[in-house]
Prior knowledge:
A three-stranded antiparallel beta sheet has the order 1-5-4. A three-stranded antiparallel beta sheet has the order 6-8-7. With 174 residues, it is an alpha+beta fold. 42% of the residues lie in helices and 17% in strands.
Amino acid sequence: MSFAWPWQYSFPPFFTLQPNGETRQKQLSAWCALALAYSQQHRLPAMTVREAQDSPLFANHRLQRKLPLESIQVVLEELRKNGNLEWLDKNKTSFLIMWRRPEEWGKLIYQWVSKNGLTNSVFTLYELVSGDDTESEEFHGLDEAMLLRALQALQQEHKAEIITLDDGRGVKFF
């Protein structure tokens, strides 16, 4: 399935952050929505700023326009303020982009567990995101870092417990 770019992506001024406050805020909202949709479509949970800068997300080769690095950092910071991005290092060179927050992933996982009568069951993390039983689920293929955050959210709600198994980590659902 190909990605449906928004109309702004074909508009050259979109690649220059606008000085007018109101216009700039609308533009940042459009960039944030685009970054989340693109990351979700392409299942990109984590990347570096350099990868983002070189990706089609911030570089429209047809227009020969690129969002400058400083502007990309402004967009990423806006995503962080909205709770959709977490920096993975102190230098802010790599990040986790969250088109769903950990609590939302946890809710989806727990709904699947409940719907299938699997409470009081133990799963390896691999089974949960790569197993045959979850192939049709939205969380199938979820990045391990995001999976752990989702399970930690469930653990805080006393719906799951992350456990250590001989061959790695697992989770028990309640």
